[in-house]
Amino acid sequence: MKRKIIAAAVVLAFIGVPVAVKLSKNKTVKEAELAKVELRQIQPTILASGNLVFRQEVQLSSEVIGKVSEVLVKEGDKIERGQVLLRLDPTPTAPKWRSRTPAGAVLRFRSSAPS
């Protein structure tokens, strides 16, 4: 008879302890965000790390000295040979370079690389 009581206590312990532990844990309520069904655009985003490199770097230099009055291109724009990139102010500010700068001079892209 003692053995039956001990066996029943062991079986009850194996079953009862896990059930008691599960029931005694704090039940956390998970909140859900509810929304009406609607058509929306999905905005794709990519998180990446690395280095951005350019395919070709071009160094620009001017044969004349002057104050830039207008820049006609933005960084990253594709340009072609002969395209006007900027305009110089036609009003000379110093007599030493007045004769070297034509009025309203422009800077054109001239590439030494074959196009």
UniProtKB/TrEMBL annotation:
It comes from the Bacteria. Its main location: other. PANTHER family: BLL5650 PROTEIN, EFFLUX SYSTEM COMPONENT YKNX-RELATED. Residues 57-88 form the Lipoyl-binding domain. Keywords: Coiled coil. The keyword Chloroplast does not apply. It comes from Massilia polaris. This is Biotin/lipoyl-binding protein. It is found in: Cell envelope. The keyword Coiled coil applies. GO terms for cellular component: cell envelope. Pfam families: Biotin_lipoyl.
